[in-house]
Every structure is written in structure tokens, then in C-alpha cells.
Amino acid sequence: MTSALLYLRLTSLANLVMHRIRRLKQPKYVMGTVAAIAYFYFFVGRRFGQAMASSGPMMPATMSTFATMGICILLTVVGLLRLGFAWASPTATPGFRFSEAEIAFLFPAPIPRKTLIHYRLLSAQLAILFTSVLIAVVFNRSGFMGSNRVMRALGWWVILATFDLHLNGTNLLLHRLKETSPRYVMWRVLVVGGIILYAGAILWSVCSLVGNLATFADMSSGSMDRATDALAREPLFHWLTLPLSILFGPYAATSARGFAVAMVPALLLLVINYRWVLNTEARFEEGSIAIAEKRAAAKAAAQRGEIPRLSTAKQKERSGPFPLAPTGLPEVAFLWKNLLSMRSSVFSRRAFFILFGIVGGLSMSFGPMLARHSVSPNADVIRHMVVIMCAIVSGYTVFLGPQLARQDLRSDLPNADLLKTYPMEGWKLALGELLAPTVLLSVILWCAILISAILVDSSGEIEWLTTGVRLTFIVCLGFAAPLLCLIQLIVPNSIMVLFPSWYQSSRSRSAGIEMFGQRLIFGFVQMFFALTVVLPAVGFAALVFFCSKWLIGISPAVVLATLAIVPMLGGEVAVGLWFLGDRFEKFDLTAESR
Amino acid sequence: MIEVEALTKRYGDFTAVKNLSFSVRPGEVLGLVGPNGAGKTSTLRCLAGIIPASSGRVTVAGHDLATDPVAAKRELAFFPDEPRLFEYLSVRQHLTFVARVYGVADYEKIAVPLLEELELSDKADVLPAELSRGMKQKLVIACGLLHSPKVMFFDEPLTGLDPLGIRRMKDSIMRRSKEGAAIVLSSHLLHLLQEVCTHVLILKKGEKVADGTLSDVAAKFSNGEANVSLEEIFIRATGGSET
Known about the structure:
The complex is a heterodimer of chains A (594) and B (243). With 594 residues, chain A is mainly alpha-helical. Helix content of chain A is 78%, strand content 0%. The longest helix of chain A is centred in the last third of the chain and has 40 residues, at 513-552. Chain A is globular, with a radius of gyration of 27 Å. The model of chain A is unreliable at 55-61 (pLDDT under 50). By secondary structure, chain B is an alpha/beta fold. Chain B folds into two domains: 1-75 and 151-243, 3-Layer(aba) Sandwich (Rossmann fold), CATH 3.40.50.300; 84-148, no CATH class. Chain B is 37% helix and 25% strand. Chain B contains nine helices and ten strands. In chain B, helix 3 runs parallel beside helix 5 and helix 8 (214-221) crosses helix 9 (230-238). Chain B is globular. Classes of the chains: A mainly alpha (594), B alpha/beta (243). Chain A binds chain B through residues 306-307, 314-318, 320, 324-328, 330, 332-333, 336-337, 340-341, 343-345, 412, 414-418, 420-425, 585-586, 588, 590-591, 594, and chain B through 11-12, 14, 45, 48-52, 69-74, 76-78, 80, 84, 86-90, 93, 96-97, 99-107, 125-127, 129-130.
């Protein structure tokens, strides 16, 4: 039986590789592959090769104790939240991730239950190992996390595999309790209470670390490491986090010998969880079928160009974001529709729960530190950090936001025929479709601008940065932000109508290096067009600002520069909308499939 | 109401519709028939302004679809064979949205009886995921009828409907035509065409084989025989083979 299952895995893998090779006949896959290989060569492989070839270490061999502890605490918070959620809101039917074909062929076959679970658990390890290697390669690239990728990858694998097994075991145990124990609810309440207490105790210990940190005059890495070491020596913290220390041991190891020593108890913990899953007598078949159906439906939805729904929860009607009058600009109807769909698909109750948990956890961890530092000389350091964070958020919002906020023509691609029957000019339809993501991204930018303008140089060292100048910056940047967002959104939507087959394949959930490359090309094109369109306007505005500020002062110069840039961006938006609308009117998806 | 002159639709080297001309007057129901791949859906999609024609001219309610598409589209409704709905809009919200797009000020006066007629009143607040395929089809119809279109295009209108739904759909089409709407419908169900259509247009390989009233077309292909069924006429007209 094992040989048959092994044959299934290996043959499937070989055929998958052959399929990927064969589809390289199509230019879009070839170009994707070339782009991905180039990326890995220039950004990962070459550096790795240089690191291996050089006599001395290019990057620090180990990361600081503080950074290691920080990552471990973050992983613990996420893990405990996930585990707490599993106990608080158990899945109706637990199961494993079998494919529909595996269910059709293997479930009715004379295969022992334990063999099926073995097969699934071992198959999952390959995917987990791949993810671990990817995390180690990507995060080790900058040297932030030390240079030993193999140790890091195996460390990640131990963490992810053990947690995956533990979660599977938890789900099966919960199902078994539900079927056999009259105290099912009581057990759940007790365990959730225990998790909260445990998390609270760890957070309380971490707060003492934060307290220690606050006693240091500077926030240098040496000081942080000393504070972390002090925390690690605390008996309460040590015993509380013993299982976690075992789990994170290989990941945090700083030498090969330390890694080998840490691996022994970590692997033991993994095996214990494996045996637990294997020996928990609970039905998993119905759950596995439900998971397979859900995944197949999500895959089919992605291939049709729709947004896949991964949740099995019943969708409910939501009230509109604002009352929609039956007459008026039809573009507003699209804003209304897309905001409604955005709320339903993005801002689910579960998302709020997770976000609340993370924000709450971080606030409890770092709140005391921020409170103490707000009146100390380190206040400026923290304010600067917040301003830098705002700048990073703004950058991501402008460049990455349009890839994530997709409630526009891209999400309405399956309804293209219907949209084209509406009595609207193409550019109006395009504008209407783009309004919702523009509003979302603009609000994020406005918040970042507002916070930055308030916090930057709040001690008043820069003379010219008066309240009036700050207000002028807020108003002027706030005025230009929606136009910038619109331009950024026009680009991916135009790519979709110009190259629908490329777009469709990149939207599908198929994996592979060539798909990664295709997404890279899309990202590059987005960036290139954005810079081509925005840079001339920004350059002109900068020229106007620097030439005029000597004559009329800073605030009027900012206003003048805004008056210069807004018509340019507005003109570019108008041309972009006209182009997008025109292409959409002529767009025929059926022609692409011929 | 609908004037089509020398309509041609090409996809690269392939010509889906060749030099097609016909007209539909108010109150007429034109049945578009033909084998698979004959160009029915391409024709309907060109007439509804979904895809541009490669050449030729289409006029809807006096408005040229190429030069004044917005005015033309204000007068028409297209009902696709596959109901495509917005995932996160409830039945009622679909109607609100469509009302705004077409600027139907008093849409609630139309929507309420429409939902009752289509038996969707009790589903007004549910999302499309909870509707059966037939109900989704009904919602598409409700959305299409909300702005009281003068011209309607149906692509396989009976697909997915139960027998009662089929009966209601046929009644609805005939009532709208009696009220003065010009209707074009494409279907493989010849008995539907026989019951509902006043005129028929037979397509083969994108070209018109015959058009006119049912009796005109029957006379053309009956070879003098009496009581020849539409099915027999269809087989004779298309040569009994696909495309």
C-alpha cells in the first residue's frame, strides 16, 4: 500500500514538472521563467554564492538575542491567537487537506485509516519544508537574521510542522470531545481561559523586559540584548516558556553544535504531536471532503477571474456604505457597490478579531514602554520611528496598494458583458469602478500624512516648520493623494484589458516559478509606468517650489507647487481614464479564449 | 426599433457573423436559431453593444450603437444565458444599483411588483450565493426590466428554469412584446420559438439562411408539404449538420 501511495506522489510530481516544462512553449511562461530566474540570480543566488566564496562572513553569523526573542514572541502571539481561535470557534468537521481526486480514489480504497493520515501528514511536510526554505532565503537575504540558511530553514520547518500537527490534533480532539463528552463546552471554556492566562503571564513577563529596557539611557542593541538575557534568566519566564524554548531552540541556535543539541528535544516534541494526531480517534472524512470541495471551488473561482472565498461561513447581507439615491451620477453607484463588496470580502468579523488581537497584544507589550518614553529624551526617537513607519506605509500604499485593493474592474471582469450594456461612456464606467479603491488608499495616505505632519520635529528644532507650514503640507498633499492613487490604479486595470490572458493566468492560483516571474513582470510594469507618469509631475512641482520659496515663502510655494502638480496629475488621470474606458469598450474576453 | 445593416463580426481570421441584415419592429419577437457555432451569441452581443461589430450598422430605438452607444443602451436590456451577479449585493441592492445606473427615479414602484411577479419578494435581502440558479436568472431578468426597456435581447432565456418558471418566462416575453417592446431571443428550443416568436432568423456559419414570419420561413422550406414542423424546417435550412 505504501508503495502505491509513494508511486502516486512521485508520479504526480514528475508529471507536474513535465507539465510546467511543456507549457514553456507559450511566450508568457517563458518570459515569466526568465524574469524569475533573473530575480533569484541577482537578488538571492549571487549574494549567497559570494557569501559562500568569501573567506570571512559577509553577514553577521548570529542575530541579536533581542531580535531572536522578538521574533519568537511574535510567533508565540500569532500561534496562541490561532490556537485560542480553534478552541473558541471549532471547525464543524475537522479534516486534512486531501485533493478531490485523492478523496475519490483513496477514501473508498482498502487503505487503513492510519495509512491515509500518514500519507497526508508526510505529504504536508514537503510543502512546509518548501515554505521554510523560502522564508529562510528571503529573510536571511539582508543579513538581518544571520547567515546560516540551512539551520534557519530547518528551524522554521520544526516550528511550522509542529504547529500544523498540533492544530490538526486540536481540531480532531475537539471533534471527538463534541461527539463523546457531555462537558464539551466546559472543556472549551477551560482551555480558552487557560490560553488567555498563559498568554497573559508571558505578556506580563515581557512587560518586565520592556521595563528593563526603559531603564537604559540608550536603545542600543547591546542594551537590548542585556535586558533580554536578564528576562531569560527570570525563573517564572523560563518555566513558562519551556515548551516554546524547545520549539524555538533549533531556530534560535547560534552554532552547529547548539543546533544539533536543540534539535533533539524539538524533534521529540514534533514526534509527540505526530503520534497524537495519528492516535486521536476522530472522524476526519467529512471534514476532508468539505475542505477539498472548498479548495476546488476557490480554484475554479480564481480561474474564472473571481475572488475566491475561503470561508465556509454563510454570507450575510450588509447595509450599503451610504444611502444610494436612485438618480444622480451613476459613477457613485459603482463606488457604493464596490465599497459594499470591499466591506464584505475584506473587513470580515474574523479579520477584525485577528486585528484586534494583534493590536491588543502589541499594545499590552509595548504600551508601557511608549508611556514611559513619551516624557523622556527618547520621545523623539519614538516619534521619528512613527514618522518613518508612516513613510513606509505611504510607500507601500502607493506602490503595493493597487495590487491589493482590487475592488474595481479587475474584480468585475466576470461581469464585463453586463457592465458593457450599461448606458455609460467607457471613461465614466472606468472612473466609477476605480473610485472605491481610490477612496480606501487615499484615506490610508491621508492618515499617514496627518500623523507625520503632527509628529515630525514636534520639539520645534526646525524653525521654518511652523503650524501654518504643517497645515499647508497636510492640505496640499491630501489634495494630490487621490490623484496619485487613481493613476496607480489605472495602470493594473489597463494591463488587465490590454493583456487579459496574461492577467488571467496571473490571477489563477497555479504556482510555479514562471507564475512568480509573471507576477514580477506585472509588478515591474506597474512600477515603471507609475514612475514614468508621476516623476515628471513631481519634478516640475519641486522646481516650482524651490524657485518660488525664496520669493513668496514656504507655505505659498507649497500651494503654488500643488497648483502646478494637480493639473498635470489631473490631465494624466483624464487621459488614463479615457484610454481605460476606450479599451474596456473594445475589450472582448471571448476573443482571448479563441 | 432594431435595424441591423450588413453586420459583420470577425475574430482575427475567423468570421463569426457575415454581412447580416434584418430589422425588428415594436411588438415583434424575433427568434434567432442556428446550429452550435452559427454566430447567434456573437450577433446578440454585437446588438447589445457588448462587443463592437467589425463592420456594419446597428440602430436601437433610433440611436446608432456605434456613434451614440449610451443613448442606445438606455433603451435596451440584455439577458445572458449564464446569470452573472455581484457576489456581495443582495437582491434588493442589485435593484438599487441598477436603478442608479439607469437613473430610474421611482424604481421601488416598479421593483416591488417585479419581485412579486418573479417570486423573489421573500428573497429580497439575501445574497446571490443563497439563490438557486433559476432564482439568479429571475434576478437578472428583474434587473433588466427595471428601466422598462424598449428593446430586449435574450440569450437562451429558459436555461435553468423549472417548468413553472419556463411558463412564466414565456408569458412575460409575450406580454412585453404586446406592450410594444422589440425582442430578439436566441434558443435551441424550437417549441419555445414556435410559441413565442412572431419572426424567425436562421443562421448558419454566421450567414443568414432565412428570415421572416414563421409562415414565410415554413413556406420557403416546406417544399409544398403541409404541416411541416419548425424542427424539420430547421434541419432542412441548416443542412442537418453543425456549422
